[in-house]
Amino acid sequence: MAGGAREVLTLQLGHFAGFVGAHWWNQQDAALGRATDSKEPPGELCPDVLYRTGRTLHGQETYTPRLILMDLKGSLSSLKEEGGLYRDKQLDAAIAWQGKLTTHKEELYPKNPYLQDFLSAEGVLSSDGVWRVKSIPNGKGSSPLPTATTPKPLIPTEASIRVWSDFLRVHLHPRSICMIQKYNHDGEAGRLEAFGQGESVLKEPKYQEELEDRLHFYVEECDYLQGFQILCDLHDGFSGEAQRNIYRLLNTAFGLVHLTAHSSLVCPLSLGGSLGLRPEPPVSFPYLHYDATLPFHCSAILATALDTVTVPYRLCSSPVSMVHLADMLSFCGKKVVTAGAIIPFPLAPGQSLPDSLMQFGGATPWTPLSACGEPSGTRCFAQSVVLRGIDRACHTSQLTPGTPPPSALHACTTGEEILAQYLQQQQPGVMSSSHLLLTPCRVAPPYPHLFSSCSPPGMVLDGSPKGAAVESIPVFGALCSSSSLHQTLEALARDLTKLDLRRWASFMDAGVEHDDVAELLQELQSLAQCYQGGDSLVD
Amino acid sequence: MAAVKTLNPKAEVARAQAALAVNISAARGLQDVLRTNLGPKGTMKMLVSGAGDIKLTKDGNVLLHEMGLHPRIITEGFEAAKEKALQFLEEVKVSREMDRETLIDVARTSLRTKVHAELADVLTEAVVDSILAIKKQDEPIDLFMIEIMEMKHKSETDTSLIRGLVLDHGARHPDMKKRVEDAYILTCNVSLEYEKTLTLACGGVALNSFDDLSPDCLGHAGLVYEYTLGEEKFTFIEKCNNPRSVTLLIKGPNKHTLTQIKDAVRDGLRAVKNAIDDGCVVPGAGAVEVAMAEALIKHKPSVKGRAQLGVQAFADALLIIPKVLAQNSGFDLQETLVKIQAEHSESGQLVGVDLNTGEPMVAAEVGVWDNYCVKKQLLHSCTVIATNILLVDEIMRAGMSSLKG
Fold it and tell me: Closest chain A residue to B116 measured between Cα atoms?
């Protein structure tokens, strides 16, 4: 890979992580497909960071996500574990046995009709039984776009989506999917519910070996691996009964502490109101409408936020490496950061960026996405902000010469300056890094319809004719090392101390001991201390 | 299928299956007595004690108690049977020098169950030779010194033993040569993935620094080359003089075949290692089980009282092995068993089932061998599990009566 893209290996652990990942890869793929469209700005983001080129045994070139995902038995539905790209029907049928053979078939998963067009449009099973993919867009922009005769993709009905593979429109490499056979995704028995269970699965030599083999495969072919981005389920989704809430609390606490110990940076991502025992109502966005009970919706929003905040280490020119980003945000042991986003970023017709930013006033403009409470009133230690999808013409105000600028923002000459100035005004003295991109976030189907009903009156999000489905949106995203974590982590610790762990023996049975809980409490409390407003070195 | 799995040195599966068989046998004996009680047309039982006292009943509970059948007594019978069986195993085990020929027989017996015969024979040689290559005098065999590498390839009979290493990556720099003959190998002590196996395969010493570099520190390989297959690159380090670490290169057309072969190879390696560690083997094909069952029946009278039922059940259970072997091969199980038992009585030799003909065969003569340690382990675990199952019933009943009170 001459050219020196700084590769990133993505890991997705868990089913909700799979949902977020499916939206994420769909978005990346949509961006690849548009790469040669003349309307698009020249490549600002480098797809080789996330994707790898490869070759099947038949000499077919492939371009697939550099991804390892782990999920439970039953979560794939009709998607094959080795995917569809590297298949050879003849070779696949061979077996090393000539004696008697009985076949025990599970009931076939019905093929998702929504994916039929995807599989047929992108590939063809030739007469020799080899799967040949028709056109593979790659970052080098040399392949043709799908022609006008290619049928528009069907939009999945939300009721038909049970698992993330139901709406994933990207071919994965055979080494991407690692299924854990020991636990079931669905059903009444054998579920993966407690932190200890997950921990012990990964300690089993069989899964360790599997994971290591795949890691070796992807990592060894990298030239400048910059790091791993890991999407990990902290807890098993949506609570209801008391036991689920307790498990959620325990899993969140253990997960958070352990992840922090082993990562450079950790960011909880959730549309819930709180990480603690008592669930708060989910967050709401001023310009989009979503159903908080649908993982299909929640994961889409989080994927868009991720697509924005991860921009710094995916830039084509002057990228900020993962290491630098993490260092900037996590000094003094503050490894946990919060995320926030404005989805979509509201820019009314005729408005410029300074106008829009001024309208937010002094309040923190973004919706919190880490279930750590409202950002207003809290103190920020460091932040990384990305704004993407604003037309260059709107970056600066188009004041007639001679008009006095209504604010300092209006006096700036570039979008980058305006953004930096705005952040400086919001949080004076705070270490802020900001990036301004022309490329918007993709929200074409299978992304859910979240926008049209709610956009500010008259606002056209992406230049499409009014009334048409929105295909892309501007987004403002932020990663913030914030003092709100002090309260959140302390509250988590408090909730834990109130628990009578003898009642939750089933959680403990899975491999966690009482001493572990005491240690956990200590770690939570010392982590919380790092975020106390008074002791920062920023001033 | 289930019973065939008991031949597999995967002891875990065998334990459960064999225990179930034992339990069913014991239960079946009782069932035969109790079955006839059922219904108005069922048979009344008249129990006459030693002193001539008479009791008439159809009550199953009463019958069991009157007949003195207590689960604990049956399990005592199991214990006695187990001890006798273990003794018998000691007597029939064949201690000999584990030469290549014997090890080939052991490996083949294991591998032929897992993959088709032609492939099994190819793997057999590779498995045995790999162990002989890494075996150090008077030291236990470390199976980690045999690397197993997978390669997608059209024909799986190309699986082979490489006297050296195969690494699952290619050159790290575009200027590196693709092929080198008569190569010197420098291993650096920087926690490389293949550090240990590289020095074992090629010789030389893993170095911390280049300060005292001398020719003695270097290893050697006759041939080093890079091989590309699709998008995967491999590095072959072959023709090493005296490799203490080797690679089994498994080739297969698809993932499930590769896994099937890899599992078979691992089982085969284990079987060979067991044979070497034990210093002995036992005849397979159900021969040991047939002879052991006969010995237990002979031994029965020396067991006191009702416990004899446990011994009988144990012996019956053992016979499931030869029976199902025959059945799976398409022969009549009762007929075949009778033939084998007769042959064993007559000749005194350990006689098992010839799966091609359904006729008795002397397993040792044909080279069908099982591991001694596996048979021993099976006897222990099956007895424990069967005992636990029987005694759990007892505890549950005790619990229930206390609730009633």
Answer: A97
Q: What pTM did the predictor assign?
A: 0.79
Question: Cβ separation of B116 and A216 shorter than 8 Å?
Answer: no
- Kindly indicate the confidence band of residue A142, based on its pLDDT and cuts at 50, 70 and 90: very low
- Nearest residue of chain B to residue A95 (CA atoms): B257
> Rounded to whole angstroms, how far apart are CA atoms B315 and A282?
67
How does the average pLDDT of chain B come out, rounded?
84
For residue B353, list its beta bridge partners: B360
* Residue bearing tokens 């470390």: B142
DSSP string of A37-93, one letter each residue: -TTSPS--B-GGGTEEEEE-TTS-EEEEE-EEEEEEET-STTS-TT-STT-BHHHHH
Q: Which residues of B touch A221 (CB under 8 A)?
A: 169
Question: What would the DSSP string read from start to end of A106-120?
Answer: PPPPPPPHHHHHHHH
Q: What is the ipTM of this complex?
A: 0.70
Q: Give B260's contacts in chain A (Cβ within 8 Å).
A: 95-97
Cβ(A166)–Cβ(A114) below 8 Å: yes
Mean pLDDT of A270-290: 85
Inter-chain Cβ pairs, chain A and chain B, closer than 8 A: 48
Closest among A238, A231, A235, A178 to A208, alpha carbons compared: A178
Collect all residues of chain A within an 8 Å Cβ-Cβ radius of residue B231: 54-56, 62
β-strands A67-73, A8-13: how paired?
parallel
pLDDT digits 0-9 by tens, B359-378 = 999 999 999 999 999 999 99
| pLDDT > 60? residue B99 | yes
Range picked from A66-70, A450-454, B47-51 for highest mean pLDDT:
A66-70
* Cβ pair A332, A382 in contact under 8 A: no
Phi, psi (deg, nearest 5) at residue B68: 70, 30
**Given a cut of 50, is residue B243 above it in pLDDT?**
yes
Strand partners, B252: B152
**CB–CB contact A97 B116 (8 Å):** yes
The rounded distance, in Å, linking the Cα atoms of A378 and A373 is 10
